[in-house]
Amino acid sequence: MDMKRLKCSPVTGQGSDNLAGIGRVMRPKFKAIDNFMKEHKRLPQVGFVSLGCPKATSDSEQILTRLRAEGYLISGSYQDADLVVVNTCGFIDSAVEESLDAIGEALAENGKVIVTGCLGAKGDVVQQAHPRVLAVTGPHATDEVMAAVHQHLPKPHDPYTDLVPAQGIRLTPKHYAYVKISEGCNHSCTFCIIPSLRGDLVSRPVGDVMQEARHLVDAGVKELLVISQDTSAYGVDVKYRTGFWGGRPLRTRMTELAAALGDLGVWVRLHYVYPYPHVDEVIPLMAEGKILPYLDIPFQHANPRILKLMKRPGNSDNVLARIRQWREICPELTLRSTFIVGFPGETEAEFEELLDFLKEAQLDRVGAFAYSPVEGAAANELPDPVPPEVQQERLERLMLLQEQISEERLRRRIGQTITVLVDEVDEEGAVARSSADAPEIDGLVYIEDGQHLKVGDIVDVRVTDSDAHDLWAERVK
Ligand code: SF4
Predict the structure, then answer these.
(1) Distance, CA of 86 to CA of 79 (rounded, Å)
(2) Residue 379 Cβ < 6 Å to ligand 1
(3) Atom number of ligand 1 nearest to Cα 230
(4) Is 389 helix (H, G, I), strand (E, B) or coil?
(5) DSSP letters along 13-36, please?
(6) What is the pTM of this model?
(7) Which tens digit of pLDDT belongs to each residue from 89-133?
(8) Is the pLDDT assigned to residue 456 strictly greater than 70?
(9) Is 137's C-beta closer than 6 angstroms to any atom of ligand 1?
(10) Is the CB–ligand 1 distance for residue 182 below 6 Å?
């Protein structure tokens, strides 16, 4: 190949050509910088073919800007490029043809090609013509393109220029990490002001979430804790858009994300799962051992009138039937939930209905709070507030009942062999957690002969004792 020049829109030029003359051959202005960098270190290089109208040019500029900001070089030839991005046009037949030809050329000359732009939004035209492409996105998809680039051409960590490690700065111990998948919430629970503070749901691109998880696992993390305001709503805001991970399409959706995270080979724990019907889909993943059999699902109450006043879904009979079904599919399942007692207007009979629900549901972990009138919450306007002393008395009754349930459920584990992740080790032994225990909020497993274990070890232990919260165990030799 005679050093084929890539068709690249100038980063600071006049923009791309129109339909009649797509694909001008250009070199970006940072060539001198690139040459300097190339001489000093082998940095990843991306070739870029930009086709289409000025809107496509603008998309290309955004992607090129992100690439350069992250330290990638822009290559002027297929030979030097480690990977090529082709921004396509899909407006008229001749533009489609030219775009498909450009993809074919990039595949033939380089082999690693990511396709973006309008043609990518036209069903699976690109995959049918060129099944070898690494990823395809629609137009205006900088985040998805960058996620695909990261996946196939990771940005090398340079300790002289990167002030933070690839996995970012973490406040958690090295062996577990929180992965936030979205921000905000589309619900309007009357006791909560989160939507007014954090806005509507905004889901992170699934490729970005997976890339972050990959970096964490590469850095030694053994447990990923998936968090958000509403984990089961993941992707609703982007209509469950298809992103890319591992060269394959991956939907922006809780079940698909959970399965993909499960493939990383570490513990994956789901938090803050709102009780939508599609939550049922993740239970088989738990039964298969892909993700931890643990569901943190705040039910908040059991009485239908109170749930309606809270603007929460739920009918306790349905919930109980679902819990039974979940346990049939995955007997190991640990259920954690939270409840509010003393919500405005809650009668003694309605509170007792909640106690009856807890007796029937036999949840493993329960957090409970007396209703507190957070400034700005709609529930503050409801009539018949429950006096604080009554709230307190109900809270104590609920916690006493749950303590008995929890104690009984943990007692049944005595004699069982369970797998635990070690959090701390000292001369008295090790402190660990099982799949039933999220860090900071659930119980612990004390291993009295665990002095020689290391933080982050995953080991089997035999349970020897229990109380209402924690277990004691010995190593399985
Ligand atoms: S309680 Fe949770 S689901 Fe309800 S509005 Fe607040 S953040 Fe959203």
Answers:
(1) 15
(2) no
(3) 3
(4) helix
(5) SS----GGG-------TTHHHHHH
(6) 0.74
(7) 877 778 888 999 999 999 999 999 999 988 887 768 898 999 999
(8) yes
(9) no
(10) no
Task: Label the pairing between strands 73-75 and 45-50.
Answer: parallel
Locate all alpha helices (DSSP H) within 183-230, ordered by sequence: 194-198, 206-218
Q: Is the CB of 192 under 6 A from ligand 1?
A: yes
What average pLDDT does range 367-390 have in this prediction?
Answer: 92
Could you identify the atom of ligand 1 that is nearest to the CA of residue 186? Answer: 8
Is 313's C-beta closer than 6 angstroms to any atom of ligand 1?
no
Q: Please identify, by atom number, the ligand 1 atom nearest to the C-alpha of residue 274.
A: 3
Specify the pairing of strand 223-227 against strand 267-270: parallel
pLDDT in tens, 137-174: 888 888 889 988 988 888 766 666 666 676 777 788 99
Q: Quick check: CB of 299 below 6 Å from ligand 1?
A: no
Residue 369's DSSP bridge partners are 340
Contacts of 18 (CB under 8 A, 6+ apart): 53, 54
Q: Tell me the two tokens of residue 401.
A: 């009942």
Nearest atom in ligand 1 to 195's CA: 5
Say how far apart CA 206 and CA 384 lie, in whole Å: 45
Among the atoms of ligand 1, which is closest to the Cα of residue 311? Answer: 4
Residue minimizing CA distance to atom 4 of ligand 1: 189
What is the helix (H) or strand (E) element at residue 417, kind and residue range? strand 417-426
**Cα 182 from Cα 228, distance rounded (Å):** 5
Using CA of residue 181, residue 186, residue 188, residue 189, what is the dihedral sign? Answer: negative
Q: How confident is the model at residue 57 (pLDDT cuts 50, 70, 90)?
A: confident
CB of 194 sitting under 6 A from ligand 1: yes
Q: Residue 444: left (phi > 0), alpha (psi -120 to 50), or beta?
A: beta
Beta carbon of 229 within 6 Å of any ligand 1 atom: yes
Alpha-carbon distance 423 to 470, whole Å?
Answer: 14
Check if the beta carbon of residue 339 is closer than 8 Å to that of residue 399: no
CA-nearest residue for atom 3, ligand 1, is 187
Ligand 1 centroid–CA 319 distance in Å is 19
Distance (Å, whole) CA 155 – CA 158: 9
